[in-house]
């Protein structure tokens, strides 16, 4: 997925949300030869590399990929001793519909003396459920953390996974699997088949209404890395998912 963001002399920085100082060059935009565009190319074959969210509709095969970029600007306003800094977010999305093979079967012959009823339709009604948008956040001492989070190992935190306001009344969520990695070689499973592997380190996800999940955990790190990346599989179900852990 290629994203091109117009930039100017006032553009200070462009980066993926919560990955401002992430060391992987593949997750950082580069400036095109004209100097007017910040270009970011995300590999959709490895969505975990740059924290891209992938949503798969098992009924239709449609796949949706999305991520959020942050654009920081710095402008010199008249009458102000220091430049004015602004921050805006840009949500990008890519949709793909895979082609599926269909089998045509011959219908059974209708019985003798079969008559069809004459039906009259006054109007047609077609409705589509909204495409769910997942959100993920981390709270420290009850406060939602924005941007990158630097904490000491053992610090109590809470992870939250939730749906957007439009989708929340229609769908429910269930975290089936989750791994944690140092973004290099080390990786450990912390949620397996919906259950925590080590509740002391990372508790089970709890929910009240099915569309907002929360799990308490303690901050930790790998010995040879300062980064910890969570990657998981979240089921989106109509109404509520079976297998919730209720508080």
UniProtKB/TrEMBL annotation:
Q: What is this protein called?
A: ZP domain-containing protein
Which parts of the sequence belong to the ZP domain? 1-247
One GO biological process term = anatomical structure morphogenesis
Q: Which superkingdom heads the taxonomic lineage of this protein's source?
A: Eukaryota
Q: Which InterPro entries match?
A: Celegans_DevNeuronal_Protein, ZP-C, ZP_dom
């Amino acid at each position: 997925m290629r994203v091109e963001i117009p930039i100017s002399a006032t553009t200070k920085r462009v980066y993926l949300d919560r990955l401002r100082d992430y060391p992987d060059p593949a997750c950082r935009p580069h400036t095109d030869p004209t100097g007017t565009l910040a270009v970011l190319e995300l590999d959709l074959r490895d969505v975990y590399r740059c924290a891209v969210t992938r949503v798969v509709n098992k009924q239709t095969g449609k796949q949706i990929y999305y991520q959020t970029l942050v654009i920081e600007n710095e402008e010199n306003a008249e009458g102000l001793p220091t430049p004015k800094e602004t921050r805006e977010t840009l949500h990008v999305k890519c949709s793909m519909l895979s082609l599926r093979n269909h089998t045509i079967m011959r219908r059974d012959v209708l019985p003798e003396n079969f008559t069809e009823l004459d039906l009259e339709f006054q109007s047609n009604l077609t409705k589509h459920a909204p495409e769910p948008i997942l959100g993920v956040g981390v709270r420290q001492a009850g406060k939602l953390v924005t941007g990158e989070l630097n904490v000491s190992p053992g610090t109590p935190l809470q992870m939250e996974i939730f749906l957007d306001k439009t989708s929340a009344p229609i769908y429910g969520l269930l975290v089936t699997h989750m791994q944690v990695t140092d973004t290099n070689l080390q990786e450990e499973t912390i949620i397996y088949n919906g259950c925590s592997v080590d509740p002391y380190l990372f508790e089970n996800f709890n929910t009240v209404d099915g569309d907002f999940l929360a799990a308490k955990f303690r901050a930790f790190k790998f010995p040879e890395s300062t980064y910890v990346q969570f990657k998981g599989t979240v089921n989106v179900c109509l109404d509520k998912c079976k297998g919730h852990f209720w508080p």
